[in-house]
Amino acid sequence: MAGQSGNKDSEAKPRFLAVTSLEDVQAVRCAEFHPSGRFYAVGSNSKTLRICAYPKLSDLREDHTTYQPTVLFKRTKHHKGSIYCLAWSPMGDLVATGSNDKTVKLMKFNADSCSVDVEAEMYELTSQLFPLTDIEEGESSPSQEIELTMHDGTVRDMCFIEDSSNKSSLLISGGAGDCKIYVTDCATGTPFQALSGHTGHILALHTWGGAMFVSGSQDRTVRFWDLRTRGCVNVITPGATPTKPGAPVASLCVDPSGRLLVTGHEDSVCSLYDVRGSRCIQAFRPHSSDVRSIRFSPSAYYLLTAGYDNKLVLTDLQGDLTLPLPSVVVAEHQDKVISGRWHPSDFSFISTSADKMCTLWALPPV
C-alpha cells in the first residue's frame, strides 16, 4: 500500500513530471483524452469547457519547467452549472458534458479544425424535442448544440457505447435524482431507455466495448448492464462482509478484456473483482480518503487511482492479484483529486483537482 510501502518503493519510484498545468478560477472536476490522444477536454465548476492540445513529450527532461497547455477551444457558460463529467464518443466525433444544471449537452467535434459544431441533421431532428442554447455573443463556436433534459438531478457520469448494428453512438448517463440510467441515441438525440434498479445516486459509469457497461452507486452496489437484453444482468456489493455493509461506489472501471472490475469507495477501499468467476479477489487501501477515480493503464498492467487525500497512486497489477499489491504515490495536488485519466497510448495521464488545476503528468524518456 502507498502508506506501507516503505523505502523500497520510493527508491524505484517512477518520477512523473508535471508537464503542463491549466489553472481555472474554480475546482476542475473532469478531463478526458480524445480517442486520438491529440487533445483533451477539461470541464470545471466555473461552467467553462476547454479543449487543450496534447504536447510533444520527446524532449521532456528531469529539469522540466511546468507550462500552460495550448487551449484550442474555450467556451465559458457552457452549462448553467458546474461541469461534472464529460465523454468522447469512440470515433472522437462527439463530445458530451453533464452538469448540476441537470442537463446533458451533446456536440459534434471536428478533430481537423478542433471545433465544436452541431450536425445539421441532428439539429433538424432535435430542434422540436429539446431547447437549443445559443452561445453568448463573442464566444468561440457555432451557435447551437443539443441539450438533453431527461435527468432530474446532477448528471454525475457518462460514457459512450458504439452501437454496432447501425454504426451509431449511444450515450449512457446517470446521476442524482430518480436514480435512473438513461440511454440516448446520438444519431437522433433521443433518449430511448431509462434503466431502473439503483436506489441511490449513480456516481460512476464505465464501458469496455460491446454492449456491456457497469454502474456504481451511493447505494453501495455495482450493476452490470447488457443493452442487448435491455436490463441488469448482475448486481454485486463490493467490499461487503457479514459485519460490514460496504461503502458507496465512487468510481469503477473494467479492464479491456472484461475480466477484472475495480471499484473505488468513499471509505478509501478499492476492490478487485473477478467478473467471470463472480468473486472478490481482494480489497486494498491505496488512499486514506475517498477514491474518486480509478482507471487501468492502456496495457492494463497498472491501476491509477485518485483520492480526496490529494494523491494519485499507481498500483502494479502484474503479479498475483491475491497477494498485497505494490502501490506508490506518483503525483500530488494541493487539494482533493477528483479525476485521473490515462493517455490512450502513452504512459502519461491528466488529473483534475479542487485546487483549480488540471495537470498533465509524464515520465521523461530514459
Task: Offer a quick outline of the entry.
The chain has 366 residues and is mainly beta. The protein has helices at 6-11, 120-126; strands at residues 17-23, 28-33, 39-44, 49-53, 71-75, 83-88, 94-99, 104-110, 115-117, 146-148, 155-163, 168-175, 181-185, 190-195, 202-207, 212-217, 222-226, 231-236, 249-254, 260-265, 270-274, 279-284, 291-296, 302-307, 311-316, 327-332, 337-342, 348-353, 357-362. The model is unreliable at 1-11 and 118-143 (pLDDT under 50).
Strand content: over 45%
Number of helices: 2
Low-confidence stretches: 1-11, 118-143
Count of strand segments: 29
Question: Overall pLDDT, averaged?
Answer: 87
Shape: globular
Radius of gyration: 20 Å
Structural class: mainly beta
Intertermini distance: 26 Å
Report the sheet with the most strands, covering strand number, pairing sense and barrel closure. 5 strands, antiparallel
Q: Give the helix proportion (percent range).
A: under 10%
Features:
366 residues, mainly beta, 2 helices, globular, disordered N terminus
Account of the 3D structure:
This protein is mainly β and 366 residues long. Helix content is 4%, strand content 46%. It has two helices and 29 strands. The protein has helices at residues 6-11, 120-126, and strands at 17-23, 28-33, 39-44, 49-53, 71-75, 83-88, 94-99, 104-110, 115-117, 146-148, 155-163, 168-175, 181-185, 190-195, 202-207, 212-217, 222-226, 231-236, 249-254, 260-265, 270-274, 279-284, 291-296, 302-307, 311-316, 327-332, 337-342, 348-353, 357-362. Strands 6, 7, 8, 9 and 10 form a five-stranded antiparallel β-sheet that branches. Strand 24 (302-307) and strand 25 (311-316) form a beta hairpin. The longest helix has 7 residues, at 120-126. The chain is globular and about 50 Å long.
